[in-house]
Amino acid sequence: MTYKPMRELESREYRIDKGVLLEENRLLKERLRILEKYTDQLFAELEDRVMKNTREIAEKKVVLQKIFNLMDGEIILADKSYRIIEASNVSSGHHAWQAASVCKSDAACQAMKTGRAVSQETALRDGNDQLRIIRQTAFPIFDSKMNESWGFVQFTQDITSVRIEQDRQIRLEKVQAVERVVALFSSYLKTIAEAAEHIILGKIEGKLGLNNYGFKDFLALLDQQIIQVQDYLTDLFFILNERTEDAVLTNVNDLLQVTLRSSKLTALSNKNKKVKIILELARDIPLVRVSQAQLSRVFIHLIHNAFDSMPAGGELTIVTRSKSLEVEIEFSDTGLGIAEQIREKIFEPFLTTKENRLGLGLSVCKFILEKYHGQITLQPNPTAGRTTSFLVRIPASLDCQACKR
Q1: How far apart are CA 369 and CA 390, in angstroms?
Q2: How many CB atoms within 10 Å of residue 88?
Q3: By three-state DSSP, how is residue 86 classified?
Q4: Is-contact 257 277, C-beta < 8 A?
Q5: Over residues 253-281, mean pLDDT
Q6: For 338, phi and psi rounded to 5 degrees?
Q7: Fold of the domain spanning 245-405
């Protein structure tokens, strides 16, 4: 028998390799078994966590739904297709609006278009044909990158009772205003009548000639009192007049410039030439729907107050700008400022620190602006160098967003 060492060596190597492979295979199976066991444990733990989180989410959803239903109003969460995802008192999955909805008058559509929070009030009639005032406030919701809104939250509230109480309070204030004005008119008219009587009697007796000392003083007093009465009558008319039929689309820049050229403000500027008026008017500004005569009256009061606060001269800066579907007009001056103790009551009727003044000016401004859903505020922190700043806000006309000049 021939000995073949190479074949024997190959046979041994084969057996060794086979043994190694078998051992590696055994080890691999053991590892797979351990991994499978670990994976099963991991999946079981993950399933427990998912079930626990699902229960917690369901419980929170029930609590949130109860809160929604208890709130005095309706809350909806909808996607950008206006399909309701979650709501109080509304079934999910329904469309909040049909495609034919008019977006111009809808808070949610405006919020989605502009990317800003929008609040709107609408007058509707219920099933009993009763007029209801509804306020809708919508907030767009953005994705994590904040580059696109995927939906919105809208809160709808019936504010009819609030408006009724506000109207009652306004009527009460108007009655009080009338009573005070009538009492003041009696005093002014008495002064005018006495002056006129003195002049007439002097004429009759031949004691008062055209150049007589005191004659011009009487005429000046008479003229001053008549102008004062006319101003108070104008303010009283604006307080009592609730009509808005004379409201027209108005460019506040144009109206400001016309008002500044009026005889009343021209005379005021000539009287105090040390006051400089600075206009910073926005170029592209939406139109507003207001009574031009009434808004002009607001401007006159604010400008007149600024001049009164700067007897030694100063600067009055008037700025207009467009901001979040509103037009803002800011009046800032470098005058004496407003005492801290009366700042919170500054818009109350008959609040005045000036002699022979009725104190209706700022309350008239408030009455007029609120009639057109606007507002006026005394700014707590005026810009540098300014002591007093009033900010007027008026809603931009939604039916003429493109009408900018």
Answers
A1: 13
A2: 19
A3: strand
A4: no
A5: 86
A6: -120, 130
A7: Heat Shock Protein 90 (3.30.565)
